Amino acid sequence: MNNKFIRIYEDIADRIRTGEIEAGTLLQSELDLSESYQTSRETIRKALKMLYEEGYIQKIQGKGSIVLDIRKIDFPISGLVSFKELAKKMGHRAQTYVKVFEEQQVDQALHKKINFGLNEQVWEIRRVRKVDGEHVILDKDYISQRLVPGLSKEICNDSIYQYIEQELGLSISFAKKEILVEEPTSEDRELLDLEGFHNVVVVRSQVYLEDASQFQYTESRHRPDKFRFVDFARRR
């Protein structure tokens, strides 16, 4: 089996990750790459296809392949986007691992934190997001069992929002968000790759359905070097 295109893909991907090939620049042409790697243009096309599918490059008609900035992932502040939707742009560079999936009854302390009713049954979920081989996000979710029945660990490993919208037929409408910078907790240190980092970026969200019912409280804890939060603002 000819794996030469995989070796070429890995070499170029590594050079993009290390910054040797800078974001925003154009890759060499297929012809130049075939000469550099002493292989056929068909082999180069296969390597470029993998780079495109894994989110390293974007093909531009008439220009070639532009290198994307993979060091950070854009999280829209005002939008409601699932990690699975963002991960589609990264291909196999991103994975999700469910660490905790439990049923829990809301007590007084949890009631104050997540704004759900006392004694309400919720799903408690912890998911670690891995990008480029490093654990960089810890998502901590509480989801109403009354509004979102039938949740499972398998669904959490895939996409909760997809399940809510496509399987339950509900409409996710809006969220209230708070963004803070905090010192890492012991749980952050245990589950995330934080060596050399002294802060995490924390996004706390209360998420609502179309009828204004809160179905989710989420706390997303990010390693600060990997992510940027973006928005579009207009002066009124």
Radius of gyration: 21 Å
Main pleated sheet: 6 strands, antiparallel
Question: What is the averaged pLDDT score?
Answer: 88
Tell me the number of helical segments per DSSP (H or I, 4 or more residues long): 8
Q: Ranges with pLDDT <50 over ≥5 residues? A: none
Quaternary state reads: single chain
Helix and strand element order: HHHEEEHEHEEHHEHEEE
The structure class reads: alpha+beta
Tell me what you see in this structure.
The structure is a single chain. A hairpin with a 2-residue loop joins strand 5 and strand 6. With 236 residues, this protein is of the alpha+beta class. It is 28% helix and 34% strand. Strands 4-5-6-9-8-7 form a 6-stranded antiparallel beta sheet. Helix 1 crosses helix 3 and helix 2 packs across helix 3. It comes from Paenibacillus xylanexedens. Keywords: DNA-binding, Transcription, Transcription regulation. This is Trehalose operon repressor.
What is the element layout, followed by pairings?
Elements: H1 4-17, H2 30-36, H3 41-53, E1 57-60, E2 64-67, E3 73-76, H4 83-87, E4 94-105, H5 108-114, E5 121-131, E6 134-144, H6 153-158, H7 160-167, E7 172-182, H8 186-191, E8 200-209, E9 214-222, E10 227-230
Helix pairs in contact: 1-3, 2-3
Question: How do you describe this structure in short?
Answer:
Helix content is 28%, strand content 34%.
